[in-house]
Design goal:
The chain has 5 helices and 15 strands. The strands form 4 sheets. The chain has a 5-stranded antiparallel sheet with strand order 8-7-9-14-15, sandwiched between helices. Strand 11 and strand 12 form a beta hairpin. Helix 3 runs antiparallel to helix 4.
C-alpha cells in the first residue's frame, strides 16, 4: 500500500488575514530583538526584547516549549546555523547573528528571521547577509511568478550561484515549510535546485521561505544541547525568512510591514494587499 504525502492546508482569505495579524506582531518583535543586539548585550537580552513585544500584543510564542525549546527566539551566532539557544553569551563586535522567531494569534502562526551584524561588519559577513536576504526575496518572487513550489528553490539556487566572489554554500539539511494552524506544515520548501517540482502554487498556500547560507562547507552537526546546529568547519552562516501568502489576486508577505512591496519592486513583482 502506498502512503501519500502530507496534505497541504489551504487557507481562506479570512484565515490569511488572521495570519497577517500574527505576522505583524512577529515583525515588530524582530525590530525590538534586532535593536537589542548590540555589543555587550547577551543573547538572552535579545530573546527578552522579542518576548516583551509578543506578550504586550497578547500573542503566544510558537517557539517556547516547541519540543522543549526553552526560549522565544533562536539566536544563532557566527558558526551557529540554526536553533541557537539564548543565554548568557555576550555579543562581541563583528558577531553575525540569525534571529528567528514567531508567534500565534487565535491559533494562526507567523514565522520570520533576520540576519544581524553586531557593531563593525566584516565585509565578507555583510556580503553573506546581503546575499542571503536577496536570495530570500528571489524565492518569494518565484512564488509570485512560478507554477510549482520547486520554482522557489530553483530561483534561490540560481541567484546564489550567480553572485560574484567566493562561492557561498546553501544548506540542504534545513528548509522552509508550510505554515498556518501549525508553525511547521507541508510542503517542504527547498532552497536549492532539484528535479522535484513540488506541489502546484495556488491561492491559499502559505509558506515560510528561509534560505540559510554559509561561507564555507555545508556540512553541519548538532551540539550536545540537542538544538544548536553549527558548521563543522566553523564557517559563518546566515538566515533570513518571511512568511508569505498566496491569494486570488497575488502574494502578500505577512511578516513584512509593507507586504514586501519595497524589496519585490526591483524584481518586477507587485504584492497585492488582502483588502
Amino acid at each position: 500500500m502506498a502512503f501519500g504525502q502530507p496534505s497541504i492546508e489551504y487557507k481562506t482569505k479570512d484565515q490569511i488575514r488572521k495570519m497577517r495579524k500574527a505576522g505583524l506582531v512577529v515583525s515588530r518583535a524582530l525590530d525590538a530583538a534586532v535593536a537589542a543586539a548590540v555589543v555587550g548585550a547577551t543573547t538572552s537580552d535579545v530573546d527578552a526584547a522579542f518576548e516583551a513585544v509578543i506578550n504586550e500584543a497578547g500573542a503566544k510564542s510558537n517557539f517556547k516549549g516547541y519540543h522543549g525549546f526553552p526560549a522565544t527566539v533562536c539566536v544563532s551566532v557566527n558558526e551557529e546555523v540554526v536553533h541557537g539557544i539564548p543565554g548568557p553569551r555576550v555579543l562581541q563586535d563583528g558577531d553575525i547573528l540569525s534571529i528567528d522567531g514567531g508567534c500565534s494569534i487565535d491559533g494562526w502562526h507567523g514565522d520570520s528571521a533576520r540576519g544581524v551584524i553586531v557593531g563593525t561588519a566584516d565585509p565578507e559577513d555583510q556580503r553573506l547577509s546581503d546575499v542571503t536576504e536577496e536570495a530570500m526575496w528571489r524565492g518569494i518572487a518565484a512564488l509570485a511568478n512560478g507554477s510549482r513550489v520547486g520554482d522557489i528553490g530553483n530561483a534561490i539556487d540560481d541567484y546564489v550561484s550567480s553572485v560574484e566572489g567566493k562561492p557561498l554554500g546553501i544548506l540542504e539539511d534545513y528548509v522552509g515549510h508550510g505554515i498556518g494552524t501549525a508553525m511547521h506544515q507541508a510542503p517542504d520548501v527547498l532552497n536549492y535546485r532539484t528535479g522535484h517540482r513540488g506541489p502546484k502554487i495556488r491561492p491559499g498556500l502559505c509558506l515560510a521561505i528561509e534560505p540559510m547560507l554559509v561561507r564555507g562547507d555545508i556540512e553541519t552537526k548538532t551540539l550536545d544541547d540537542d538544538w544548536t546546529v553549527v558548521t563543522t568547519d566553523a564557517s559563518r552562516s546566515c538566515q533570513w525568512e518571511h512568511t508569505v501568502a498566496v491569494h486570488d489576486k497575488g502574494i502578500w508577505v505577512l511578516t513584512a510591514e509593507d507586504g514586501g512591496t519595497a524589496k519585490l519592486a526591483p524584481l518586477g513583482v507587485t504584492p497585492v494587499p488582502l483588502d
